């Protein structure tokens, strides 16, 4: 999901305000990266299956959209079943669940 979110955001518009990594506080390995025009930070925690949090912000404002998948693999299983059910209709290679879903 992460790759799809940052890719979709990058297609809409690049970040207007870019903070160079040398000006961000904290350990270098935790400072994130700029991918497809979007500043990205990734967190790995024990016992944490999947969550995606997208934060849009400018000076004195912030909009947060968050999705928590839960504590089991059930969301992955549902996605795999959806792809399996639709595989007969595919032409060519499909990569990522978003290429299978109908938006």
Description:
The chain has a domain of about 70 residues. About 0% of the residues are buried. The mean pLDDT is about 75. The strands form two sheets. It has a two-stranded antiparallel ribbon with strand order 1-2. Strands 3-4 form a two-stranded antiparallel sheet. It has about 100 residues and is α+β, with helices and mostly antiparallel strands. The chain is about 25% helix and about 25% strand.
The radius of gyration computed from the alpha-carbon positions, rounded to a whole number of angstroms, is: 17 Å
Distance between the termini: 15 Å
What is the element string, with H for helices and E for strands? HEEEEH
Outline, from the CA principal axes?
globular
On the 0-100 scale, what is the average pLDDT? 76
Uncertain stretches of 5 or more adjacent residues: none
Number of helices: 2
Find the count of extended strands (DSSP E, 2+ residues): 4
Quaternary state reads: single chain
The largest sheet is:
2 strands, antiparallel
Secondary structure category:
alpha+beta
Strand content: 15-25%
Fraction in helix: 10-25%
Describe the secondary-structure layout.
Elements: H1 2-12, E1 33-35, E2 38-40, E3 50-58, E4 61-70, H2 74-86
Antiparallel strand pairs: 1-2, 3-4
Using brief descriptors, characterize the structure shown:
globular; 2 helices; alpha+beta; 103 residues; two-stranded antiparallel ribbon
Entry summary:
The chain has helices at 2-12, 74-86; strands at residues 33-35, 38-40, 50-58, 61-70. The chain is α+β, with helices and mostly antiparallel strands.
């Amino acid at each position: 999901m992460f790759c799809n979110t940052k890719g979709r955001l990058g297609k809409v518009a690049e970040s207007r305000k870019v903070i160079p990594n040398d000006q961000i506080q904290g350990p270098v390995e935790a400072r994130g990266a700029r991918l497809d025009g979007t500043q990205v930070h990734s967190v790995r925690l024990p016992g944490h299956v999947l969550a995606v949090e997208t934060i849009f912000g400018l000076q004195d404002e912030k909009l947060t959209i968050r999705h928590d998948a839960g504590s089991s693999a059930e969301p992955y299983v549902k996605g795999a079943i959806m792809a399996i059910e639709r595989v007969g209709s595919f032409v060519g290679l499909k990569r990522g669940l978003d290429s299978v879903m109908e938006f």
